[in-house]
Amino acid sequence: MAKRALIVVDLQNEYEASGKLPLENLDQAVANAKRVLTAARDGEEMIVHIRHETPNLDVVPFAIGTSGTEIIAAVAPVDGETTLTKHYPNAFRDTGLKALLDDASVQEVIIVGAMSHMCIDATARAAFDFGYAVTVIDDACATRALSINGVEVPAAHVHAAFMAALAFAYGQVVSTADFLPA
């Protein structure tokens, strides 16, 4: 089996109901991410946590030094797990993630986290472009409703559209139940 790493993307307090960017179905996504995280820990796989910060601004989402940038306690890193901070949607951009994975001879990445339409999408596509086999655990990811030109797009539709696009060409998209051994 190819060496793989779990990448836990942006499961941070800012996305909770009390945060500046609350997501729909976040509790379910966190619970499923925790199951995937536990399995990765039990399997002694590489785990990388990604946290987003918005530099030089103090009132926007993910402002440096605020509780919004903290990783949700249920999926917080433990000793031995790497945490990288990013400033862009793509977790590979200016973070050292690729070098970290390559140094560990990782060939496959498993991705969980937030937001499906932004950082999950950007990170999964970048991982594919770098040559990694990519699996996104769709029910361990969350997003929010969007709108454009007066068209309101429900969160479930946003999530489904982005998962379908990733599954079309960028990797596997599976549920937690289908991913984890019985």
From TrEMBL:
InterPro entries found in the cross-reference section: Isochorismatase-like_dom (IPR000868), Isochorismatase-like_hydrls (IPR050272), Isochorismatase-like_sf (IPR036380)
Name of the protein described by the UniProt record: Nicotinamidase-related amidase
Highest classification ranks of the organism: Bacteria, Pseudomonadati, Pseudomonadota, Alphaproteobacteria, Sphingomonadales
Molecular function in Gene Ontology: hydrolase activity
Keyword set includes Protein transport: no
Hydrolase is among the record's keywords: yes
Transmembrane parts of this sequence: none
Residues making up the signal peptide according to the UniProt record: none
Organism of origin: Sphingomonas aurantiaca
SUPFAM superfamilies, per database record: Isochorismatase-like hydrolases (SSF52499)
Keywords: Hydrolase
